Amino acid sequence: MTRIEIPTPHGPARAELHCAEEGAAVLLLGHGAGGGIEAKDLVVATRAAQAVGVDVALIEQPYRVAGRRAPAPAKQLDTAWLAVAEELGERFDGLPQVFGGRSSGARVACRTAAEGQAAAVLCLAFPEHPPGKPEKSRQAELDAVEVPTLVIQGETDPFGRPKPGPHHEVMVIPGAHALDKDLDALSRTTSEWLTRVLRPHL
User: Fold this and answer.
1) Three-state SS for 35?
2) How far apart are CA 112 and CA 118, in angstroms?
3) Tens-place pLDDT, residues 127-162
4) Superkingdom of the source (predicted)?
C-alpha cells in the first residue's frame, strides 16, 4: 500500500494505492460525505478487486485531507476527482479506469464518468434520495451514465433504491446504507461484476 498526495484545483487530495499482482485496470473509489476510506464496504470492495487483478486507489477528497467534516460543493468534488483520475491515469500508464465510491462518492463517480472516460462505474449505496424525501430523486445522475454500471444497495437503505436502466444494474443485498451486514455478498458481487465488465482487459 502506498499513499500519495495529488494536487487539485481545490487543494491536495490523497490516494491510497492497493495494487494487484498484475493489475489490468484501476478502480478509483471515493468515500461518503461524512465518512472516510476506512468504511467497511470500501475495504471489502478493495480486496475483492485486487483478487481479480484490478489495482485500487482509495481517494480522499481535499476537504477530508484538510480535516473538514462538511463536504465541499458537488462541482468542487467533481473537479478534484477528475484531477486525481488524470494523475492516476499517467501513473498507471493508461490502464482502463473504473470510477466508483460509496454514497456521495458514488454520485461523484456517476457525474464524472463521461468526462473522465471511465470504462465502468461501481456504486456502493447510491443515495437515491435524502431519507424520507423520495421526491428529491438523484436517479438522473445514474441514468446519465453510458458505461456499464453496478449499484450495490442495502435492502433497507433509508436513502432509497435506484431503478435499473439500460446501462446499470441494481443488486440488492442484506443491510442498510453502510452495506456492512453481508460483506461476503458484497465481495462476491463486486469481484464477479468486475471480472465480467473488464473481461477484455483481465
Assistant:
1) coil
2) 8
3) 999 999 999 999 999 999 999 999 999 999 999 999
4) Bacteria
- Kindly state the percentage of the chain with pLDDT values over 90: 94
3-state secondary structure 55-107: EEEEEECHHHHCCCCCCCCHHHHHHHHHHHHHHHHHHCCCCCEEEEEECHHHH
Assigned domain for 17 exists:
yes
As for how many domains the chain has, the answer is 1
Give the pLDDT of residue 78.
98
Is 202 part of a structural domain of the chain?
Answer: no
> What is the extent of the structural domain holding 183?
2-197
CATH number at residue 60: 3.40.50.1820
List the grid coordinates of 182. Answer: 453481508
